[in-house]
C-alpha cells in the first residue's frame, strides 16, 4: 500500500498537449476513479503512473519516492488492461504466476500457494491448467484480475477493465472489485468512461475534461453538486436549462427562455443569466395546470420499472424519469414540478 | 455445384502444375537413380554412401545449412522485431532495405562478395592493415565465405517470415509484461520470442531448404575445393555425364532435407499450438 502523488503532470504527443498540468494526491488505500469522455487523457494519465508513458513535465511519486524516470518494471504497481493482455502461450496459472516469477517474489512453493489463493479469490481455481483462449471473456477478465492482485502491488491500476463485459457480468465484477478492494486495501486507480461505474465503485471521482481536472470529490458530492454544466451533463442525470435568476421580494425565481418561471430555494446565491441543472429523477410530471411550468411530451421510452419521457420545455428537450402508474401520451401537454432545493444553478454555459 | 466440387475446381490448376512440374520429374529422378545397365540397382547409392569424399560433401551441406539457418534466425528476429515496432514510414524503408538484395541477380551479388573477400579485396585488406591477419590471408574459397554469402541472400526470407508473425503480436502483451516486472530484454525472451516461434519455424524451413539446395553462391564463393551437394550433382551431370549417379545424389539430398525438416516442423508446430 502506498500513496500516489502526481504533481503538475503535462504530456504532449508531438505538438498536441493532452494533459495540461494535472496535480493529484491519492492517499494510501483509496479507490479513485478517473472519469471522462474518450480523449480526455484519463488513460494517458494512468499509463504515466504505470511508467508506460513518459511525462513532458511534472513528477510522479509512489510511496514518497520520485519514480518519474523509472521504467514500469521498477515500480511496485500492477495494471489490468481493457483487453486483459493475458499471455496466450501460458496457462492460466502460469499467467497468474508470471509477476511473481519476474519480480522474484517467494520460493516456488510460496508462488504456487499465492497463485492458488489468487485464483480462488476470483473463483477460477478449477481452470488453472487451461489456456486463456479456452476461456470466456468474463473468465479471462477474472484471470487478469487475479494476475493483477497476486503480487500485492502498492498500487493497482485498472484501465477500463469492465467495458468489454455484458451488463450482468459487469455488475458481478463491480461487486467483486469492491470486495477485493475492501479486503486487500490496495490503492486503486480506476479509469472509466462509465459514470455509473465510477459512482458505484469509488471513494473519490476525478472528472477529466480535455486534459484538465474538471471536478473531483466523493461520488455523492460530485453527483449532487456538479461544479459545471459539463460535469452534470457528463454524469448523465441532469437536464440543462438556460434561465435568468432574479429576486422579487423574498422569493427567488428563475425565468426560462419562454417566460415561464421556476421557484428556487432561497439558499441560491447566483443571480442573472445561469444554467439550471435538473436531474431527471427530480422532475415530477402531473396533469397540465397542476405543475409549476408546462411542457409537451415528445416521446415515451419504456424502461420496465419506469418510463422515461422526452419533454419539450421552453425550447429545450429534457429527460424525465417517471413511474408507470400514470402514462402521458405523446404530444400531450403536461405540468412539471421540481422541488426548489433540488435545482442547481450553474454558471451560464 | 456442391462446395466440394467447387473446392476441387479451385485447387485443380495448382495440382496440375504441381503434378507436371514436380511429381513427374521427381518420379523420373527416382527411377533414374536406381537404373543400371542390367536392370534396377542400388549401386549408385552404395557408391555415394561408401565414399568418404561424398559423405563429407553431404555432411558439409547439412552443417553449413544449419549454421546459415541459425545465423539468419539470430539476425532476423531482432531485425523483424524492430521493423514491426517502428513507425510505418521507417518500416517501409527497412523492408525495402531487406528486400533490396533480392532485386539483384544471385550471380551479381556473389561477384560482389568475391570482390570484397578475395585476397586483394576490401575485407582482408582492412584486417591485414589492422594487423589482425597474415599477408596471405583470404576469405575466398572458405566455408566462411559461403556462410557470409548465403546469409545475405537468405536473410530476407527469414526476416519477412518472422515479421509477419511479430506484427500480429499485441503490443499490450509487452506492456503488460513490463508492468509485471520484466525488463525490455526479459519481455523479448518471455513474451515476444515464444509468440514468434511459428514465424521462426517457417523462416527456418525456407532458409534451410534453400541453402541446402543452393548452387551458385557456394560454388562461386567456396570454389571447387569446398563442394556442396548441389555442386557435386551439377558436376556429375555436366562433367562426368553420370546421370544416374547425379539422380542418386539428388534423392539423397531430397531425403536428407525431409528427414531433418519433418521432425523439426512437427516439434516446433506442436509446441506453438499446445
UniProtKB/TrEMBL annotation, chain A:
It comes from the Bacteria. GO terms for cellular component: ATP-binding cassette (ABC) transporter complex. GO terms for molecular function: ABC-type transporter activity; ATP binding; ATP hydrolysis activity. Residues 4-235 form the ABC transporter domain. It is a peripheral membrane protein. The keyword Cytoplasm does not apply. PROSITE patterns: ABC_TRANSPORTER_1, ABC_TRANSPORTER_2. Gene3D superfamilies: P-loop containing nucleotide triphosphate hydrolases. Pfam families: ABC_tran (PF00005), TOBE_2 (PF08402). Keywords: ATP-binding, Nucleotide-binding, Transport. It is found in: Cell inner membrane. Belongs to the ABC transporter superfamily. PANTHER family: SPERMIDINE/PUTRESCINE IMPORT ATP-BINDING PROTEIN POTA, SPERMIDINE_PUTRESCINE IMPORT ATP-BINDING PROTEIN POTA. This is ABC transporter ATP-binding protein. It comes from Stappia taiwanensis.
From TrEMBL, chain B:
Keywords: Cell membrane, Membrane, Transmembrane, Transmembrane helix, Transport. Belongs to the binding-protein-dependent transport system permease family. CysTW subfamily. The keyword Transmembrane helix applies. This is ABC transporter permease. It comes from the Bacteria. Residues 58-264 form the ABC transmembrane type-1 domain. Coiled coil: none annotated. Pfam families: BPD_transp_1. The chain crosses the membrane at residues 57-80, 92-116, 144-166, 187-210, 243-265. InterPro entries: MetI-like, MetI-like_sf. It is a multi-pass membrane protein. GO terms for cellular component: plasma membrane. It comes from Stappia taiwanensis. One of its GO terms (biological process) is transmembrane transport. It is found in: Cell membrane. PROSITE patterns: ABC_TM1 (PS50928). The lineage of its organism: Bacteria, Pseudomonadati, Pseudomonadota, Alphaproteobacteria, Hyphomicrobiales.
Amino acid at each position: 500500500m502506498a500513496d500516489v502523488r502526481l504533481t503538475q503532470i503535462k504530456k504532449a504527443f508531438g505538438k498536441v498537449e493532452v494533459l495540461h498540468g494535472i496535480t493529484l494526491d491519492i492517499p494510501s488505500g483509496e479507490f479513485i476513479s478517473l472519469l471522462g469522455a474518450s480523449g480526455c487523457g484519463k488513460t494517458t494519465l494512468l499509463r504515466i503512473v504505470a511508467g508506460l508513458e513518459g511525462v513532458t513535465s511534472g513528477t510522479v511519486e509512489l510511496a514518497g519516492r520520485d519514480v518519474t524516470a523509472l521504467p514500469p518494471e521498477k515500480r511496485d504497481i500492477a495494471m489490468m488492461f481493457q483487453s486483459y493482455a493475458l499471455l496466450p502461450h501460458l496457462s492460466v496459472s502460469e499467467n497468474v504466476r508470471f509477476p511473481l516469477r519476474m519480480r522474484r517474489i517467494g520460493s516456488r512453493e510460496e508462488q504456487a500457494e499465492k497463485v492458488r489463493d489468487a485464483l480462488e479469490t476470483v473463483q477460477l481455481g478449477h481452470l488453472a491448467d487451461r489456456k486463456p483462449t479456452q476461456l470466456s471473456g468474463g473468465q479471462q477478465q477474472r484471470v487478469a484480475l487475479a494476475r493483477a492482485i497476486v503480487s500485492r502491488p502498492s498500487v493497482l491500476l485498472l484501465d477500463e477493465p469492465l467495458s468489454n463485459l455484458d451488463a450482468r457480468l459487469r455488475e458481478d465484477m463491480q461487486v467483486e472489485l469492491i470486495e477485493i478492494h475492501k479486503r486487500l486495501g490496495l490503492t486503486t486507480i480506476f479509469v472509466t468512461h462509465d459514470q455509473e461505474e465510477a459512482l458505484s465503485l469509488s471513494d473519490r471521482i476525478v472528472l477529466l475534461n480535455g486534459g484538465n481536472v474538471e471536478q473531483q470529490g466523493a461520488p455523492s458530492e460530485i453527483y449532487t453538486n456538479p461544479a459545471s454544466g459539463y460535469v452534470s451533463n457528463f454524469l448523465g442525470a441532469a437536464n440543462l436549462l438556460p434561465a435568468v435568476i432574479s429576486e422579487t421580494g423574498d422569493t427567488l425565481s428563475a425565468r426560462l427562455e419562454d417566460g415561464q418561471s421556476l421557484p428556487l430555494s432561497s439558499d441560491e446565491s447566483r443571480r442573472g443569466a445561469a444554467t439550471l441543472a435538473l436531474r431527471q429523477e427530480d422532475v415530477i410530471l402531473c396533469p397540465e395546470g397542476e405543475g409549476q411550468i408546462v411542457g409537451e411530451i415528445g416521446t415515451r421510452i419504456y424502461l420496465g420499472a419506469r418510463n422515461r419521457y422526452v419533454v419539450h420545455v421552453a425550447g429545450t428537450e429534457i429527460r424525465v424519469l417517471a413511474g408507470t402508474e400514470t402514462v402521458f401520451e405523446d404530444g400531450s401537454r403536461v405540468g412539471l414540478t421540481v422541488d426548489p432545493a433540488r435545482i442547481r444553478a450553474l454558471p451560464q454555459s | 455445384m456442391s462446395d466440394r466440387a467447387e473446392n476441387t475446381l479451385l485447387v485443380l490448376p495448382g495440382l496440375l502444375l504441381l503434378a507436371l512440374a514436380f511429381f513427374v520429374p521427381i518420379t523420373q529422378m527416382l527411377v533414374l537413380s536406381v537404373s543400371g545397365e542390367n536392370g534396377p540397382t542400388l549401386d549408385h547409392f552404395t557408391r555415394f554412401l561408401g565414399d568418404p569424399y561424398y559423405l563429407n560433401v553431404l555432411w558439409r551441406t547439412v552443417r553449413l545449412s544449419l549454421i546459415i539457418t541459425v545465423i539468419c534466425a539470430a539476425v532476423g528476429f531482432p531485425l523483424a522485431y524492430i521493423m514491426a515496432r517502428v513507425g510505418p514510414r521507417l518500416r517501409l524503408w527497412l523492408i525495402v532495405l531487406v528486400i533490396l538484395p533480392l532485386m539483384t541477380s544471385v550471380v551479381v551479388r556473389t561477384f560482389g562478395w568475391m570482390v570484397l573477400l578475395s585476397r586483394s579485396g576490401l575485407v582482408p585488406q582492412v584486417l591485414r592493415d589492422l594487423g589482425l591477419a597474415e599477408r596471405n590471408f583470404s576469405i575466398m574459397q572458405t566455408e566462411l565465405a559461403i556462410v557470409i554469402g548465403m546469409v545475405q541472400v537468405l536473410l530476407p526470407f527469414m526476416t519477412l517470415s518472422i515479421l509477419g508473425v511479430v506484427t500480429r503480436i499485441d503490443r499490450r502483451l509487452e506492456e503488460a509484461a513490463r508492468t509485471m516486472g520484466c525488463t525490455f530484454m526479459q519481455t523479448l525472451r518471455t513474451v515476444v520470442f515464444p509468440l514468434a516461434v511459428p514465424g521462426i519455424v517457417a523462416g527456418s524451413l525456407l532458409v534451410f531448404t534453400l541453402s541446402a539446395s543452393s548452387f551458385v553462391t557456394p560454388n562461386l564463393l567456396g570454389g571447387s575445393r569446398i563442394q556442396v551437394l548441389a555442386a557435386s550433382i551439377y558436376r556429375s551431370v555436366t562433367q562426368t555425364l553420370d546421370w544416374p549417379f547425379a539422380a542418386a545424389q539428388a534423392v539423397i539430398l531430397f531425403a536428407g532435407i525431409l528427414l531433418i525438416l519433418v521432425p523439426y516442423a512437427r516439434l516446433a508446430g506442436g509446441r506453438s499450438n499446445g
